Amino acid sequence: MNDSMPSVSDESGNVIHNENSHYEPVQPDNYIRFRIIPVLHYYKEKIPDYTLWRGITRTLLVIGSIASGVLAIFHLTAWAALVSVFVVSVTAYQEFSGTNSKLNRYSSTVHELQELIFWW
């Protein structure tokens, strides 16, 4: 433990640390403050980024599908095929990156951590 770390004792004589040493057990209030809250903030910061990317890829898929259909109507099949390849590439990237599953996982983690904090 760091000697410069300030600590205080409560009424029952338990030592209350102002920093997390990552090695010793902590009381519930400090556990929430040092371990749950940072994880909660981490996942909350990630959700808007993944939501943005999911929105961008869905928009590209819709625009590409419409463009491919319009090009096919005007008998520009070569261009329609290129647009279809682009749409398939976007779909493949979205599945490979796992944006939807990450967004679902992060959202449920935030929900569960908030319930845990409310429970304590």
What class would the helix/strand composition place it in? mainly alpha
| Gyration radius from CA atoms, angstroms | 25 Å
Q: Quaternary state, please? A: single chain
Main sheet strand line-up = 1-2
Q: Which stretches of 5+ consecutive residues score pLDDT under 50?
A: 1-8
Fraction of residues in H or I helices: over 70%
Largest sheet: 2 strands, antiparallel
Terminal Cα span: 27 Å
- Count of distinct structural domains: 1
Estimate what percentage of residues fall within beta strands.
5-15%
The number of distinct helices, counting runs of at least 4 residues, comes to 3
Mean pLDDT across the residues is 83
The backbone outline, from C-alpha atoms, is rod-shaped
Helix-strand string = EEHHH
How many beta-strand elements?
Answer: 2
Describe the structure.
The protein has 120 residues and is mainly alpha-helical. It has one domain. 73% of the residues lie in helices and 5% in strands. It has helices at residues 28-73, 77-97, 99-119; strands spanning 7-9, 15-17. Strands 1-2 form a two-stranded antiparallel ribbon. A hairpin with a 5-residue loop joins strand 1 and strand 2. The two termini are 27 Å apart. The relative contact order is 0.12.
